[in-house]
Specification:
The protein is α+β, with helices and mostly antiparallel strands. It is built from 11 helices and 13 strands.
């Protein structure tokens, strides 16, 4: 892979003296959805698929970007002196946003870069291709310019780029899971404090199978920001009765005792999901520590039901593929993952059932939806690195 990318870099940008190659993973969230901006817990893991970059410094302040995923865009040119969001700059805004956020923190690039990017994460699938590119860009700058930033800083810088440069009000989970990835482990992260622990995901007889609905979604124009503001409003209503800073601080019992402070049925449902999903995530990690994969699977299913009924972010495609998955023998659990409204679902399947699972779920999905789903049997990988 590295050699092919370096050869392609030379074709696009010409031969350079010093060429560097880097990788940052994608991520999948096993449980804990739409809890990260509500001060709750999440349980994501980094994947072995992700985003690659081949990079060389250039003699001026020019930024030249080329993506093997968007070859029709050609070379997109910017400058380190003009780090502003431009719609016509397309995918490069994610990288420029990180450079902008770095600059705001006093990390100035002293020259431009030629950057070739290739990702084997499906775009718009909900496996965080954008956060992968953000963390990758931060890691490239840290390594090439000697910036003293921690991996946690890289996650926060990526989130700042997404929030303030791109305009998507995302939480910290995606960037954190990618920056802090640890092979064979998921990350049990308290998004309110950024305290975390690595929990081993010891799947000896099972595989993680990601099911891509191939229904594309864009976070910025989805209802993501709307859900976030509904939760913020519900929180301020609850705060008239309870001393809390986030929905993630409530137990199910506390929520039930005070839920009528929330004046709208819709906001009440949104807040219920945030509270109950946070508690499900805590229980799921305990189940995993106790080697109780069966309970973990049941909590995954309950998570999907809540995302469908209370948070209303699933949609026909995700509900169809999860329902089909849960009908198959050898399935421990399945749920949508990511922001929703399309993208992917994640399932845990017994090793000997994987092939039949993919065939049967694929057929059921195509019959109902009219087009194919894609399936990826994935491994849990590490964080960003130099290749």
């Amino acid at each position: 892979m590295k050699q092919q990318l370096v050869e392609k870099f030379s074709k696009v940008f010409g031969d350079k003296k010093a060429i560097h190659t880097f990788f940052a993973p994608g991520r999948v969230n096993l449980i804990g959805e739409h809890t990260d901006y509500n001060g709750g817990h999440v349980f994501p893991c980094a994947l072995t698929i992700g985003t690659y970059a081949v990079v060389s410094k250039n003699e001026d302040n020019t930024l030249r970007f080329y993506s093997l995923n968007f070859e029709e865009c050609g070379v997109i040119t910017s400058s380190i002196d003009d780090l502003v969001y431009k719609k016509e700059d397309d995918w490069t805004n994610y990288a420029k946003g990180v450079m902008w956020a770095m600059k705001n923190r006093g990390f100035e690039m002293n020259c431009g870069l030629d950057i070739l990017v290739y990702g084997n994460i499906p775009n718009g699938s909900g496996l965080s291709s954008s956060a992968s590119l953000e963390v990758l860009t931060g890691y490239v700058l840290k390594e090439l310019f000697g910036f003293e930033v921690s991996l946690t800083d890289l996650a926060l810088i990526g989130q700042e780029a997404e929030n303030k440069f791109i305009g998507v009000n995302c939480g910290i989970m995606d960037q954190f899971a990618i920056a802090m990835g640890n092979e064979g482990h998921a990350i049990f992260l308290d998004t309110a404090t950024l305290s975390y622990e690595y929990a081993p995901v010891d799947l000896k007889g099972e595989k993680i199978v990601i099911m891509n609905t191939n229904k594309k979604r864009g976070l910025g124009d989805s209802k993501y920001n709307e859900r976030r503001s509904e939760c913020e409003e519900a929180l301020s209503e609850l705060q008239t009765e309870v001393k809390i800073n986030s929905l993630g601080e409530l137990t199910e019992e506390q929520f039930e005792a005070h839920k009528m402070a929330i004046k709208s049925d819709v906001r009440r449902k949104r807040a219920k999901h945030a509270v109950y999903e946070n508690q499900r995530t805590i229980k799921a990690v305990d189940a995993l520590k106790a080697n109780n994969l069966e309970l973990f699977g049941k909590l995954m299913i309950a998570s999907h039901d809540s995302l469908r009924d209370d948070y209303e972010v699933t949609g026909l495609e995700l509900d169809t593929i999860v329902a089909a998955a849960l009908e198959q023998p050898g399935v421990i659990g399945a749920r949508m993952t990511g922001a929703g409204f399309g993208g992917c679902a994640v399932s845990i399947v017994n090793n000997d059932a994987v092939d039949a699972f993919i065939e049967n779920v694929g057929a059921a999905y195509k019959e109902k939806i009219g087009y194919e789903a894609d399936f990826y049997v994935v491994e849990i990988g590490g964080g960003p690195r130099t290749l």
